[in-house]
Amino acid sequence: MAKRKENLTSEIGWSTPDEINVRGLDLPSEILGEMNLGDLAFLLLKHRKPSPEESRVFNAIVVTLVEHGLTPSALVARMTYLGAPEALQAAVAAGLSGLGTVFVGSMEGAAKMLSEALDGVTDPDLDAIADRLVADFAERRQIIPGLGHPVHKPVDPRTPRLFEIAAENGLSGDYIALIQKVQERAEAARGKSLPINATGAIGAISSELGLPWHIVRGLGVMGRSIGLVGHVLEERENPISAEIWLRAEEEILKNNGPDATGKGD
Amino acid sequence: MAKRKENLTSEIGWSTPDEINVRGLDLPSEILGEMNLGDLAFLLLKHRKPSPEESRVFNAIVVTLVEHGLTPSALVARMTYLGAPEALQAAVAAGLSGLGTVFVGSMEGAAKMLSEALDGVTDPDLDAIADRLVADFAERRQIIPGLGHPVHKPVDPRTPRLFEIAAENGLSGDYIALIQKVQERAEAARGKSLPINATGAIGAISSELGLPWHIVRGLGVMGRSIGLVGHVLEERENPISAEIWLRAEEEILKNNGPDATGKGD
Amino acid sequence: MAKRKENLTSEIGWSTPDEINVRGLDLPSEILGEMNLGDLAFLLLKHRKPSPEESRVFNAIVVTLVEHGLTPSALVARMTYLGAPEALQAAVAAGLSGLGTVFVGSMEGAAKMLSEALDGVTDPDLDAIADRLVADFAERRQIIPGLGHPVHKPVDPRTPRLFEIAAENGLSGDYIALIQKVQERAEAARGKSLPINATGAIGAISSELGLPWHIVRGLGVMGRSIGLVGHVLEERENPISAEIWLRAEEEILKNNGPDATGKGD
Amino acid sequence: MAKRKENLTSEIGWSTPDEINVRGLDLPSEILGEMNLGDLAFLLLKHRKPSPEESRVFNAIVVTLVEHGLTPSALVARMTYLGAPEALQAAVAAGLSGLGTVFVGSMEGAAKMLSEALDGVTDPDLDAIADRLVADFAERRQIIPGLGHPVHKPVDPRTPRLFEIAAENGLSGDYIALIQKVQERAEAARGKSLPINATGAIGAISSELGLPWHIVRGLGVMGRSIGLVGHVLEERENPISAEIWLRAEEEILKNNGPDATGKGD
């Protein structure tokens, strides 16, 4: 049962007739024109402005999450818009609803694996930790989150670039080193290519930025909502979802309708 | 009925085993580390990179839309998280669902009013257009979108700053001039303070950026999804939605329960 | 701006340690085992139990709205489940999001047209009203809501059965008579088959039941949520949404990918 | 990665110009006027019509799930409607989004516990199984799903009535007997009142009806969507969500605003 509270509090922000404050900063004078959209997201997650280096790295990882072509969530947003063109927000909301365990789970899982292995550990033995992690996942017969990709083989082209950006900005530390060691051992153990995919890279870099693992799904939600607006606007100009629907409906009718089943006679 | 299409097409992007392309740009080499989150949103809406000036102005207007304190949509996201803490994306989706005519309508309305008045008009007579608009809305007994604010009086502190950023970056033109003239005439006609609110400023600046008015609701959705992630994460650390719910439920029980109605005897 | 309230009230229901009350009825003793699901929906909309005749008619119209095959909203629910199989509720929520102006609008529109024409009118001249309605819609170049169907021609097979059920239960009055007269005149004026479709029949019968027109969209939401649960459960056993997605994605890659555009070279 | 399919199939239904078929039944002649809303839900879940006894029992359990007063999901629907009154479907969708592990989890958990203990077991020793279940949950320090209630003590008034309806209709078997034995042992072991709550009763009765445990969350979704339509319609007539929001916002401003923090000086 929920615990009762005497006072409702929130540190996110407040406004009065002549002031608007977000996380302790005056919106008009300290945020507008000073911070880009990614920086404001960082402020909301970390409760402070990013350094210029953090800004570049954080923007890069969220930017990576915006657009992945005609994904199921893009199709969901487009098909929702088909029925409710007056409610763009509902189309985006519907598209976000499917960002669950299957599509954002591995990013969350990678961040969790790395932060549970390293947070609070001084002078960690990365080789030993990597050995243990690979063995643990093998024993549990689980996929190691953040490794492998159905399309991008042998290398996910986003990963080396993201790691490069992190290194250029002084944010390549033990978390990135650990996932690279995990990858080497996993490839050796399984005898196949297991590239660190973008979700693995983002999980590691999030940890380098000090973001708790449970926040990482939120990065996907932030990024994808922007991408979904893009899909809805293209659907408006170049509608394709009705055609996708009608083809599927016709195929079902052919395969299961009265002519197929004899029930219609 | 939906028209049929022979071919499904989408210009947003594609990926192959070693390439990922978004709106004609190579994601790893031309986007990551080069564009911030607001710039990528601009790319998806305008199909080209922003200039540095456009980047500053566009980021400023979307940043304005991220966070407005404990709004109904923030409460919706927090209360959804209360029941489904495993599904942060569903909480944000629920929060976005209420960004309809009441809360984002005036921004869309302001952009529509300005662009319908000025798009394709060469050498417009702004004074005459402003007179006509104020008269038209008065005749239809409608509120002029983008003017007036229940809290921020006599000035919405975001508006002068947004207009300043637009001017500093060479993006203050007829749309901004027109809404300012509309405001002057509306205040004179109605005899009361009618500040250009943030939605009016954003509607005007969107038009200066060449964004079609029907896109403007999408800016609100992009910005607010980031703000809602912030609310869900604070709810996780400092839960308040259960208390808000329980207080309301208890008050209903007191006002309408068996002791109030005698039905429980 | 929202008006303030001193007291929060709700007449829907309340519970105490040993009682649960819904709209004035004791849930365990007066509802459970006594009312079916449609009857409880009626109770929530009309604030009283249906008569046996009302129960049959109301259940029939909501039942009509449950299942329409592989609609866009069914595809949306299935594709959302693909990404978040742990959250069946999110899949149904996503599917409901698209029940907007395009797919439920005509039902709402038919109920509105009929109730605005007849509510509060004693001894209405149905022929004259039908003439006027057909002329008004023609003048505004609008489709008459509730008439015409892309597939079910010349007769929507649900309509005569719904009208028969209404008549058998003493609920066929002026609203049904009016939409039939509107249909006759519209067919004569336009010279083509314009069957009263199921949404027109439901709009008329809702009005016979005394349901306000703005409630009618809610009937669609109630019914469809049940149908969407059915689709998600079939998707679990016989997944088809991934195939629909992958076919579309591959076609886009072929039509817009590097080989098509030369950008990948 | 998703497996490919050569053919898309669906057994739910199909339509041709003059026929509409749902799960093998002709909608106009075999469903409309013949089956109530709960019966159609049963058809979609079980792929056959219910017997009269099954109809009474199934309707009773779904009816139980419709309305629980001013829950968080009801507040979510009402607050979404506040911002988007043009989109009732979005309000219901938002309200459903929170039916996750916290509020429907125990129903799913009870059904899972009982079906995993009994499905496929001939001649089960219910006493031994109950002992084992109580010991297992105690060892894992987990709450037994379906037992205990924060308000309804010592008895949840829905439970005896639901069990009575099941018994009257010949559907009280081993699943109900087992949860009753689990309750007795759990109360003895923990030395406190642990009533079988409505979710426990519904979990058990669902199993008696042969519904797989993973379907049980869908029953909650079906029922609640009907209840949420009721809340949105009451909010339309008697709006309370704005007041709840404004009270919370004012309290935050008092506790965290400029006067509290000194940041506004």
UniProtKB/TrEMBL annotation, chains A, B, C, D:
InterPro entries: Citrate_synth-like_lrg_a-sub, Citrate_synth-like_sm_a-sub, Citrate_synthase, Citrate_synthase_sf. GO terms for biological process: carbohydrate metabolic process; tricarboxylic acid cycle. Signal peptide: none annotated. Its EC number is 2.3.3.16. Keywords: Transferase. GO terms for cellular component: cytosol. Pathway: Carbohydrate metabolism; tricarboxylic acid cycle; isocitrate from oxaloacetate: step 1/2. PANTHER family: CITRATE SYNTHASE (PTHR11739), CITRATE SYNTHASE, PEROXISOMAL (PTHR11739:SF4). Belongs to the citrate synthase family. This is citrate synthase (unknown stereospecificity). The lineage of its organism: Bacteria, Pseudomonadati, Pseudomonadota, Alphaproteobacteria, Rhodobacterales.
